[in-house]
Amino acid sequence: MSLADPSRYTLVVSTSLDTESRSALLAREAQVELERGGGTAYLLDLRDLSLPPFDNGAAFDGETFRRIHALVAEADSIVMAMPIYNWGAGSSAKNFIELTGATGEKGRRAAWFDKVITFLCAGGLPHSYMAYSQIAASMMLDFKCVVNPYVVYASDRDLSPEQGFTDSLRARLAKTVAVHEELRDLLAHRTYRSDWEI
Length: 198
Hints:
Radius of gyration: 16 Å
Low-confidence stretches: none
Number of helices: 5
Strand content: 15-25%
CATH class: Alpha Beta
Largest sheet: 7 strands, mixed
Number of domains: 1
CATH topology: Rossmann fold
Mean pLDDT: 92
CATH superfamily: Flavodoxin domain
Order of helices and strands: EHEHEEHEHEEEEH
């Protein structure tokens, strides 16, 4: 499926700060897949920014916060690429969500409500393939995101900067992106709008 409205876009967020990040490779390839499907995809690489740590205060000051908040809020879907450390999502991914997901003073509202979201994960070993589930559950329950049931999990055996993608990883990424596109398009005209609620 392709996007009928060119003003709509998918935001691909590469959250790793590693200069040789494998999850960043996943993010770039996902952007290519999304554009191959006829959609518009913007890549936001956190290595290009200097995001402050979330402090529920001064972190909201400045143009960088306003820019990333607007990118998330205006996207109709999000693809998040992130490293897995210690059986959980990397701290930079969580910091990004906390910054853009806070509601508070001066009319600030969480940017994530009702987004279709897909996770692309890179870990050292195959055993951590469910490590993204804590963040996925939070996004679904807090922000009423629709989480793609297909996830990409790449270990050292699947992807390296030197060897690139295995055939099975490339096929999994293509299927995951295709499901993301279908969910995004089917939910584009939903009749509800969520806010903070149980």
